[in-house]
Amino acid sequence: MSALAVERATRASRIGLVLAVAVVAALVAVPFTGNAGLMRMIVELTALLVLAQMWNLLAGYAGLVSIGQQAYVGLGGYALIVLADDLGVNPFLAVPLAGLVAAALALPTALVVFRFRGGYFAVGTWAVAEVFRLLVANTDALGRGTGRTLKAVFPLARETRELGTYALAVVIGLAALGAVYLYLRSRQGLALMAIRDSEPASESLGIDVFRTKLAVYMIAAFGTGLTGALIYLNLLRISPDAAFSINWTAYTLFIVVIGGLGTLEGPLVGTLLFFAFREVLADHGAWYMILLGALAVIAMLRFPQGLWGLMAERFGVHVFPVRRRARLPG
Amino acid sequence: MAWLDTVLQGVLLGGLYALFATGLSLIFGVMRLVNLAHGDFSILAAFLAVVAVGTWSVNPLLALVVVAPLMAALGYALQWLVLDRLLGRGVLPAVLVTFGFSVIIQNGLLEVFSADSRRLNPGGIETASLALGGGLAVGWFPLLTFAVAVLLLAALQLLVGRSAIGRAFRATSDDDATAALMGIDTRRLHGLAMALSLAIVAVAGIFLGIRTTFTFSSGPDRLLFAFEAVIIGGLGSLWGTLVGGVILGVAQTVGAKLSPGWGVLTGHLVFLAVLLLRPSGLFAPSRRGDG
Using the beta-carbon criterion (under 8 Å), do A126 and B220 form an inter-chain contact? Predict the structure, then answer.
């Protein structure tokens, strides 16, 4: 008789699975309504959700508190334009390729920013993102400060482009969620969480801390770059100031912190809340950013586990269980 | 001569950057806190000076008498009420909260003062220059900025190195818990360090506002320049910070002269080069636990 049984699924995760099927069915149904505005909004929501999942992986699991992820949004967006317009790649195929370009550029970047420890890593990544912005803004082929327009999609009918973008967004959103979930439940994910809890202890158990962190940094760059390409496939017009804007990271950060850092459900909750805030306060200028900032500060002081964390603590709900729990039989 | 002039302007600009960097370096030294809103606090101070100048029609330099203590009080309050609770909880909370401050300050300034660019007018000194002969001239105001930076750094060096409170700063920096056991009120001390940091950054913000135009979103660049000056000079070295600021300033003016639009970028690239060649900076004291 074994003394302990290891549980990896929960009641909520089984209910969640049913719920997930329902959400996917609804997402498939949306294009049939022909509501282009709704489709655009879902693309935008998905993009923010993926950005949030990637930042959560970095900061919530790997302890890499980057304030420079806008670098990869911008690089992904510009990679899409260059691949599709200058090199003739199919624009929809160019989106995942743009993610690869971002990941490739993340390798040399990591060698620089990994020299910073702790809080200085945050400022260092921000400085490097500025370097990328200024390099792009000084390059003639990329349209300098005025930026460029994605022309490769012009021959497509508007409906085709919108449907293609929407389908791509839904696939990316679900794939990102699934990939992060599976990654965290894998051996590497376990190593990652061990590093988060104690770097020296995990190192003494034979975990290669540097390589694990580098892998996460590059995965996050891939996901963020891919999302950047998706965003500009949706917007069609890119400029360095907008694409490399710190706001991408600000939105992401508030979404994750308010929703719940270090959980997969948190970014979901945070993204929905972010959209609700923005819609409700749409006529009040910059106030939604002020309120979100204040809410994030309060969250850090009063409930650092975020809204989802509060829920999970109180009701023991885990829709995406990435932890292993030991339970005595009987 | 034109190049010598460019370098000279860069050196003087470095004085301003050192002013920004000092406050950032101080709180990192005392409590390992990185304040991502550092630049935004300087812009907040500059806008407060705009209000003071508008209300009492005083010279912006005189407005410092009001603005610097106000910023110091704000720093003490924020440290006491918010930031001190986050120390010892890892990197993330302090980074997130100060980034939150940055977003709140920027958008708050946008709501109150609109997106228009502003400038502080000190009544003539900003355009007056001193001829050095041979066609070289330096502005009185950049010269004043540099002198103020040197004086402030010297005063801070004395404070940290010679006074009782400086000893407490150093003790807290080395070991917070032991310092507290020795009867140091670390919470009060952290508050004082943040007050001092924001008072200095208020000076920097007002000097910036006289030198050039600024908007609600001018803060983050100031943070990055301050950070780069600190890293180039080496963490924990006050005079290193001045040298770091000067190197950054010269890199920016020389870069801008080579090609407009390359000024700030050249500064960033020089910073990255120093980081790769000498990760601990040029003048870091060899002490354990720094960085």
Answer: yes
